[in-house]
Amino acid sequence: MSDDTLKDLEKRWRKSALPLAILAVLGKAPSHGYGLAVALRDVLGAATPEGTLYPLLNGLERDGLAVAEWTIPESGPARKTYSLTKEGRAVLSKASAQWSQMSVNLGKLLS
Amino acid sequence: MSDDTLKDLEKRWRKSALPLAILAVLGKAPSHGYGLAVALRDVLGAATPEGTLYPLLNGLERDGLAVAEWTIPESGPARKTYSLTKEGRAVLSKASAQWSQMSVNLGKLLS
DNA sequence: TTACATACCTCGAAAACCGATGTATGTGTC
DNA sequence: GACACATACATCGGTTTTCGAGGTATGTAA
């Protein structure tokens, strides 16, 4: 309703860095939702709400950037493990380049 | 409607980097909306829609991070010039530190 | 058996985005 | 004078995105 409060600036880039961060984590090694949430908390410095993460993961699959596979560990609940597809890797590499470009620009401005 | 396509990853961080970028530009020197739009295009690599920028600027003022002042140039339309307040500077400096932290983390992951 | 960590998912209210549209001035050109 | 275009600000409102709350289920430890 009200347009953007501008409080908690940090929260904002966390949001949009999210998809890139997910791709980056999956680029290192396949992972499942919960594990991703833990990894993401370290990278972004804040927890990713599940209501945000899981729909995003479904989108990843729907768009063909990742494939999911159910794995049953000897103990514990079943896990849905995501791996990047070739297309996912292509998107990651492109996005990565663009991100670092912007990152450099913004860094210059901030120094 | 459809949740997040995940296409155009670039667009997403641009969105959330926006407020930080605005603060950063204003931290260098006071500016007005249109000038900001031009500067932002260089930093972020894409134009910021006016429908996004102006409401954001109003929010900046409303939240006390910046003060606006109308200036009448000898020629051309009136300009609304924004300068950071002390609080705006405090937010910028804090956000800047957190951003670079995250930036390093993500950079490590991407390399 | 209570509690907590792991692990997944959906609903829907609220928030944010931004294209379209509108106002107004100054400059260039035919 | 008429027309196009750049500068400059602003709002409306449909579409998109966010994420807290709630739900299901397993394993472990007190």
Architecture overview:
Two copies of one chain form a homodimer. In chain A, 63% of the residues lie in helices and 13% in strands. Chain A has 111 residues and is of the alpha+beta class. Chain A is globular. The mean pLDDT of chain A is 89. The longest helix of chain A has 25 residues. In chain A, strand 2 and strand 3 form a beta hairpin. The first copy, chain A, has four helices and three strands. Chain A has a three-stranded antiparallel beta sheet with strand order 1-3-2. The structure holds a DNA duplex (30 and 30 nucleotides).
Ordered list of secondary-structure elements with their pairings:
Two copies of one chain form a homodimer.
Chain A: H1 9-28, E1 31-32, H2 33-44, H3 50-62, E2 66-71, E3 79-84, H4 86-110
Chain A binds a DNA duplex (30 and 30 nucleotides) through residues 1-5, 15, 32-35, 37, 48-55, 58, 75-80.
